[in-house]
Amino acid sequence: MKMILSLLLAIMAVNAQAKSVEIMSYNVENLFDATHDEGKIDWSFLPKDAPGKKEACAKEKSKYRRQECYDADWTDEKVEIKLSQIVDVVTKERAGTPDFLGLVEVENPNVVGRLAKKLGYENMEMTDSPDNRGVDVALLYKTSPDIKKISRAEHHVPVDYPSRNILEVEFTVGGEPLTIFVNHWPSLANPDSWRVKAAEVLATRVKEILAKNPNMGIIAMGDFNTIDENNPHPFKTVLYKDNLFSDLADTFKADKSISDDVKKKLPEGTYYYPPKNQWNMLDHIFFTSALKDGKNLEIDVASFEIYLPKFALKEVRKGLGSEDEKDVKTFMVPNRFDTSAKTKEKMGFSDHFAVVVKLNFPEPAPVKKEEKKVEKKADKKKAKKK
């Protein structure tokens, strides 16, 4: 009985000392400011009377895109609404902001900085990509005794058309090494080989890191624009090769300790494609084996979410016109962002769900008074010698 009690007390002590950080990746769908970035094709996200806009719109080859450019009246008032929508999604139905927030489809440090300020983040890293529209990725992170930034880098994806760079930021979390990559791979309108190239850039860098430090925990997250039909498939041919990465969603579904009822509540994907009535899992969190080895910094698989608050969803009914009401399927999808809307109620949010997970780590054991005294004595001896 005493042994059982001791064991329970030990488990409770470990749990009491456990800490966690939360990571979220969110494609916010076209977070642009209302100012032209030199050399970028951002005319659809400028006011109607912006200098040079009419001439730039006339150069659009697509009739649809040309008219869209002419009609667009993207003002700073709309930017403010867009920012407030993102803030609502990230904060309104959650306990607080995530410790790390990966942002996909953002324009520049100006607009990301405005968002960071509204969300209360003091730190941000962002790519400076060659993408023609000026689209980039960013990572916001909290100031905390547990989180220390070590370095940052970005990696060019060499494909035939300018694309988004991959952001890399190295940290220590609770004293343990962690590197986060934020991705926005070439869109599905481009050849599958382009996404394979992005996967190769990511995988090459990850292998370099692990060769130097096999204990490095690595997270790769963002919008990977990859579906099952892709061939060659960038995950199967590159990321999963030699067990380099595991996909969190797949790990969650395969985990027998998580009930089927919980798994059934998970949305079918992160992006709904209406023309094909199809859910796609475009947004992912991949992780390396060091985050699931039972030591120190650990990914909490059961905490995984495909997330949007209810107010950011809209109802879709498929099968309308059917004689049999049973054929009508009703489900909720992301309420996508509408640039033409003039009010907060009509503007929508984003066409993507966010993905969320927690990392757990032990809190360092407090230094005992006796140990502190020994340390002080040692410091005094060193000082005398000097």
Automatic annotation (TrEMBL):
Keywords: Signal. It comes from the Bacteria. Residues 1-18 form the signal peptide. Residues 367-378 have a biased composition (Basic and acidic residues). Residues 367-386 are annotated as: Disordered. GO terms for molecular function: catalytic activity. InterPro entries: Endo/exonu/phosph_ase_sf (IPR036691), Endo/exonuclease/phosphatase (IPR005135). This is Uncharacterized protein. Pfam families: Exo_endo_phos_3. PANTHER family: ENDONUCLEASE/EXONUCLEASE/PHOSPHATASE FAMILY PROTEIN (AFU_ORTHOLOGUE AFUA_3G09210), ENDONUCLEASE_EXONUCLEASE_PHOSPHATASE FAMILY PROTEIN (AFU_ORTHOLOGUE AFUA_3G09210). It comes from Bacteriovorax stolpii (Bdellovibrio stolpii).
